[in-house]
Amino acid sequence: MLRYLTLLTPLLLLVACGGNPTAEPSAPLATAEATAVPETAANIMAGTTSTPAPTAVPLPTSTPLPPPATATAVPTATPDPLRLIPHTPPAGQSEPFVPYGAVEQPPYAESSCSDKYPCNEDTAAWEARIRVPAGFSAGYFAYLDGQQPTAMDFGPDGQLYVATQGGNIFTVNEAGEATLFFEGLTAPTGITFRPGTNQLYISSRVVEDNANGEANISVLEDGVLTPLITGLPCCYAFMHGPHTIVFDTEGWGYVGVGAKADHGEILGTNDRAELQPYEAGILRFSPDGRTVEKYAEGLRNPYGIAIDANNQLYANDNGPDFGPPDEFHVIVPGAHHGYPYYDCPVCFTAPAGLELVPTAFEYAPHASPTGMVAYLESQFPNAYNNTFSVLWSAFPEAQRVVRHGPNGEGAETFATGFAAPIAVTVGPDGSLYVADWATGIVFRIEYGGE
Fold first, then answer.
1. pLDDT-based confidence at 253, cuts 50/70/90?
2. Spatial distance between the Cα atoms of 353 and 358, rounded to a whole number of angstroms
3. Any idea which of 8-22, 121-135, 142-156 has the lowest mean pLDDT?
4. 3-state SS of 238-258?
5. Most C-beta atoms within 10 A of its C-beta, which of 20, 208, 310, 363?
6. Count of alpha carbons within 13 Å of 199, Cβ hemisphere only?
7. What distances in angstroms separate CA 222 from CA 226, 227, 244, 448, one per listed residue?
8. For residue 303, what are the β-bridge partners?
9. How far apart (Å, rounded) are the C-alpha atoms in residues 140 and 153?
10. Can you count the helices (H) and strands (E) in the chain?
């Protein structure tokens, strides 16, 4: 039972955005507390939809699904189960960003299990610890004992699906009861149901190697896991690779893929490396995996991406080990968003004439922004087309959920008090669900009015 929440070193919580490469963490959190770095809005972006769509580049290895078996050969075409399926997001109206109000980080409090946190099973203590704006409430929804969640999504059956670092996927029903759904994966960090189907798209590792790892995008349907896009770059610091998957209204998929190094170097040197075609950016792909293209460049480790009702993409990005802030981006198709060109002593200078998209918002260095979701429901006031991001690190400036307004305009701390929040999603009821990697707890945040 994961009863004791002990703390190790901040390096385990930086999603490879701080410190030297280390093996994948097996313990929850870090004790060291960084000096507070205030969150500062920087360079709110404009004109994010005027850039032409990117040109397709050579495909990675792709394993298309076999055609459905039939009893007799017939000349008529069989419907493609992985064809593009357009969908319409829930209707809503974007409004100018209005802050809900200040939410402070609660003080740490000793318990019989930890010098900072309640025991994992102490429902009342955790609910008292999580801070949210006036009118909202945070409830202890589910507890995955002994598990470290990494990604979540709601299925067409209304259940919450939770991937874990140990390679399992659990379902959680409305009563908060968890049941093992699938096992045998390697560190899945993205699970998403394709709208209109029961097909669960999964990003996970295949070869775990710091310099030459590989990862796949696979499809899980009716208990059968089928590799779809293989040979994707992985696994610098055992934390970079493909992560969150989202789909646009036309049916195309998108996945953020991390870089194979800290700041574009050949590992073990500070010589400039040549980037692989599919690392350090966002890929766009057809549901059958036959078409894959680079949609946006220059993202070091975009763990969390989200897409709003207007098909505008957003990405969280983890900055390099040498101190630049972590970033929130409003994605411009075909454009370069900065990696590996940072302001640090060992970083490389951008080529003359290369135009870099400015960062929309800067988080504290090493805050480790991970999961992100676009809010397309109506329960929360003034929140349609907002995004909610989680900051995973054990630093006091992290351990929170941050709300951004439509098109990335405006930002505020929305919820605090977590140990290591890593994944976030919106339920069919319009509530926000936040999974904590260190404790295995899933919280549900609801709005009940003033």
1. very high
2. 15
3. 8-22
4. HCCCEEEEEECCCCCEEEEEC
5. 363
6. 24
7. 11, 14, 22, 38
8. none
9. 17
10. 1, 27
- Length of the chain equals 450
CB proximity list for 437: less than 8 A, separation 6 or greater: 28, 148, 149, 150, 165, 392, 419, 420, 421, 422, 423
Contact 359, 348 (CB under 8 A): no
Q: Is the pLDDT of residue 17 over 80?
A: no
Q: What is the pLDDT of residues 160-213, one digit of tens each?
A: 999 999 999 999 999 999 999 999 999 999 999 999 999 999 999 999 888 889
DSSP class of residue 307 equals E
Predicted pLDDT at 174:
97
Quote the CA–CA distance of 392 and 385 in Å, as a whole number. 23
d(CA 204, CA 291): 19
Partners of 297 in the β-ladder: 281, 336
Tokens for 87? 């969908």
Compute the distance between CA of residue 438 and CA of residue 125 in angstroms, rounded to an integer.
16
Is the pLDDT at 256 greater than 80? The verdict is yes
* Structure-token pair, residue 96: 């100018």
pLDDT over threshold 90, residue 379: yes
Distance CA 422, CA 188 (A): 13
Q: What is the CA radius of gyration of the chain?
A: 21
Quote the DSSP letter at residue 372.
Answer: E
The domains of the chain are located at 7-62+81-447
The SS3 call for residue 169 is strand
Locate 91 and state its tokens: 């209707």
Rounded to the nearest integer, the mean pLDDT of the chain is 85
Instruction: Quote the Cα angle for 224-260-312, to 5°.
Output: 70
Tell me the residue type at 413.
T
- Residue-level pLDDT at 68: 32
Model's pTM, two decimal places? Answer: 0.84
Instruction: Say if domain 7-62+81-447 classifies as CATH 3.90.1010.10.
Output: no
Contact 326, 370 (CB under 8 A): no
- Residues 6 or more apart whose CB falls under 8 angstroms from that of 61 comprise 229, 230, 231
Type of residue found at 226: T
Q: How confident is the model at residue 395 (pLDDT cuts 50, 70, 90)?
A: confident
Q: Which amino acid is at 74?
A: V
